[in-house]
Amino acid sequence: MFKKSFVAVVAATLALTACGGGSDAGGGGGSDDGITMGFAQVGAESGWRTANTKSVQDSAKEAGVDLKFSDAQQKQENQIKAIRSYIQQQVDVIAFSPVVESGWDTVLKEAKDADIPVILTDRSVDSADTSLYKTFLGSDFVEEGKKAGDWLVQDSASTDGPINIVELQGTTGAAPAIDRKEGFEAAIAADPDLKIVQSQTGDFTRSGGKQVMEAFLKNTPDIDVVYAHNDDMGLGAIEAIEAAGKVPGKDIKIITVDAVKDGMTALSEGKINYIVECNPLLGDQLMDLAEKVVAGEEVPARVVTEESAFTPEQAKEVLASREY
Ligand code: GZL
């Protein structure tokens, strides 16, 4: 045991020295006293994303990580461009939240060939080659969808007859959109009265949720429930429902995911009926993983974030103390 750990310490020291002094094997662009991270963010589409960006930036500062940050405005080609620029700059480590699951193998292979480790945060990729990244830090989105569906099954247990659900999906092709749909559908299969009668993407934005909900209200009679893949689309749906002269949370029940401040406020007011939490505060864990990866230490292939779910009563209790 001693021999192994001694070797690990030596290897880590050598790796750190190499990274600090700029190794010629690629990577190693870090400043003398810390590592340099290139972070390619999805965009600024939602309250969740804003909180996630703040967490990454604050944690980098605290950890002495030199952070190069880019906002892709929800475009995959911009994230790919940013990753390529980080490779050119020979950063020590690259982290990003893939806007969609597919289309990453080529650029991730370029990072691997440049000997720059990659960490997936928040969202994952569907690459068959898992050697293209060191770890994936983020939520279990299928579980989040299941929690939303389980609540609806329990909440509608005493209601007879069909319950019509309209679904506001997240960004097409994004892991949280695919998985939250999967988890929710699997959960509501327990009750044949629960039916998704309309499903369309609102792209995780408040305006997208409002526009799609306006269309649903025009073309779909008897909507009983909205299942929105994030709070922002749920808040947009509330605007559309109120404009149509209906009471959100009562005439039409609303279930969302995230639990950001604006969503929790609407929940505490009874305009939303249930929110499944998706924790955006990944910064500290990301910096810890990055330092380990750059030092050549083993890290778990998957780090799942701890999350809860809230009713209106619970929202009233915690609202004042929420960090985001
Ligand atoms: C989930 C994250 C999603 C949030 C949305 O981890 O990727 O993207 O649920 C955000 O609010 O836009």
Note down, in words, how this protein is organized:
This protein is α/β, with parallel strands linked by helices. It has 2 domains: 36-139 and 279-305, Response regulator (Rossmann fold, 3-Layer(aba) Sandwich), CATH 3.40.50.2300; 141-278, Rossmann fold, CATH 3.40.50.2300. The protein has 11 helices and 12 strands. The chain has helices at 2-21, 47-63, 76-88, 105-113, 141-155, 175-188, 206-219, 231-243, 261-268, 283-294, 312-318, and strands at residues 36-41, 66-71, 93-96, 118-121, 135-138, 163-169, 194-201, 225-228, 253-258, 274-277, 302-304, 309-310. The strands form 2 sheets. A 6-stranded parallel beta sheet has the order 2-1-3-4-5-11, sandwiched between helices. The protein has a 6-stranded mixed beta sheet with strand order 7-6-8-9-10-12, with helices on both faces. It is elongated, with a radius of gyration of 22 Å. It starts with a helix and ends in a 6-residue tail after the last helix. Beta-D-galactofuranose (GZL) binds next to helix 2 and strand 9. Residues 45-46, 48-49, 122-123, 138-139, 176, 204, 230, 232, 257-258, 278 line the site of beta-D-galactofuranose.
